[in-house]
Structure to design on (392 residues):
């Protein structure tokens, strides 16, 4: 079980305990009320968990924003069972639901008082009559990012405790949202680093090769120049999380044509692809670094790219019959202690996107060549918060 799931379950246990504590004393409905009030602990727990799940969906996806607060506020009020509820940032009210909620300035005044103290604050009723609300700060990694303000005709100890637990649970959801955003930024940085790994030597050698054909074979020079432009355009464009396998293979094809023009008969390559997997979504620039590694270690020789349909997955092999690597060299490559390979980048991104079981599998030995296997699920994972679902 992942840490995020464990934290969420623990927090929900606390929330449901507080909600049930408020619900059970009222389990006997007054005469004339309908079946909605005639529910046992199991039904109350189900309704609490459902409301919590609906409230968490937008907050976990986007963090604390006006839009996510508006999506969550109604479900949070259902969860607490209060007459009114406000979700606020330190400097503005983001969303409100229900009746008898104070104006924005009054709410923000209580929010500032609660966030300054870092503790839940009971709101006294206007005109000095009893208590009418509770404000709970929301924090991410010790930094206050907002508050939850619950209002009711009567503020009991049970409501204060329940609102406090809901506030802690919401803070946990916001921390998970921040963690997801941090992971996405890490993946974007890795993608930028991968594009930066396009070797200046490759660019120089490609242009030199193209220049050598200008006089002897102008048409070949023109074709290679177009191939080079296509490859650079693809590799340096603004990368989304995913592209299609067909687009990725087009990039690999351009790269191989340029390298073959440079090495001539010393480089041979074959590409075998099952047509039914061409539309599968794959992480951007996941194949070219593997082919680059194969050429680096397989020259002179043959590079083979084999892609097969494996039911719920596409299986990809990139092989060479070159010098191979010993365990120390492989360890260095996967830790990027050697430059220009990019195996570590692909391995880390695959594990981030699909899970720890989807890293690179490398078979190699000195004098035995190298074989790298990659598994791509056909079902595209859910986009990470803030990630664009559009294809590049």
């Amino acid at each position: 079980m992942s840490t995020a799931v464990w934290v969420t379950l623990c927090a929900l246990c606390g929330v449901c305990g507080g909600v049930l504590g408020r619900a059970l004393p009222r389990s006997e409905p007054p005469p004339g009320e309908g079946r909605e009030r005639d529910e046992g602990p199991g039904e109350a727990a189900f309704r609490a968990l459902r409301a919590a799940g609906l409230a968490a969906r937008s907050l976990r996806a986007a963090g604390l924003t006006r839009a996510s607060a508006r999506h969550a506020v109604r479900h949070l009020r259902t969860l607490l069972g209060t007459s009114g509820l406000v979700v606020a940032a330190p400097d503005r009210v983001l969303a409100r639901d229900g009746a008898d909620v104070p104006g924005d300035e009054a709410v923000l005044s209580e929010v500032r008082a609660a966030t300054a103290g870092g503790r839940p604050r009971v709101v006294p009723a206007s005109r000095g009559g009893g208590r009418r609300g509770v404000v709970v700060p929301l924090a991410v990694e010790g930094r206050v990012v907002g508050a939850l303000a619950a209002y009711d005709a009567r503020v009991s100890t049970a409501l204060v405790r329940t609102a406090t637990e809901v506030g802690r649970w919401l803070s946990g959801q916001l921390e998970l949202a921040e963690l997801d955003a941090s992971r996405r930024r890490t993946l974007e940085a890795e993608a930028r680093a991968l594009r930066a790994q396009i070797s200046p030597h490759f660019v120089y050698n490609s242009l030199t090769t193209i220049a050598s054909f200008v006089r002897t074979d102008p048409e070949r020079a023109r074709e290679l120049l177009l191939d080079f432009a296509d490859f650079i355009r693809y590799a340096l464009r603004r990368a989304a999380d995913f592209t299609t396998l067909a687009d990725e293979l087009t990039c690999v094809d351009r790269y191989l044509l340029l390298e073959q023009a440079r090495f001539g008969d010393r480089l041979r390559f074959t590409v075998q692809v099952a047509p039914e997997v061409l539309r599968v979504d794959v992480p951007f620039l996941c194949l070219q670094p593997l082919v680059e590694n194969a050429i680096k270690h397989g020259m002179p020789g043959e590079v083979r790219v084999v892609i097969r349909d494996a039911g719920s997955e596409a299986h990809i092999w990139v092989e060479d019959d070159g010098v191979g690597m010993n365990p120390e060299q492989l360890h260095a490559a996967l830790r990027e202690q050697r430059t220009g390979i990019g195996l570590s980048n692909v391995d880390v991104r695959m594990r981030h996107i699909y899970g720890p079981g989807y890293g690179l599998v490398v078979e190699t030995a000195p004098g035995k060549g190298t074989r790298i296997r990659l598994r791509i699920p056909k079902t595209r994972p859910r986009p990470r918060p803030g990630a664009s679902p559009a294809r590049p």
In short: The radius of gyration is 29 Å.
